Amino acid sequence: xxxxxxxxxxxxxxxxxxxxxxxxxxxxxxxxxxxxxxxxxxxxxxxxxxxxxxxxxxxxxxxx
Length: 64
Prior knowledge:
CATH architecture: 2-Layer Sandwich
Strand content: 35-45%
Low-confidence stretches: none
Order of helices and strands: HEEEHE
Largest sheet: 4 strands, mixed
Distance between the termini: 30 Å
Oligomer: single chain
CATH superfamily: eRF1 domain 2
Mean pLDDT: 85
Radius of gyration: 12 Å
Number of strands: 4
Structural class: alpha+beta
Shape: globular
């Protein structure tokens, strides 16, 4: 069985707050970058998901 990191090479982390969501991206090779902060609104999340989908497969995690 393959490890998930062999199948999906990008992981997105969301640190969610009442008004904003901080977003980071980790690449398979270990590089992590802060993508920025978006409003905690459906429209902003959908826009981010569309952008991420255009760049290939990814998995997400949520920090509560």
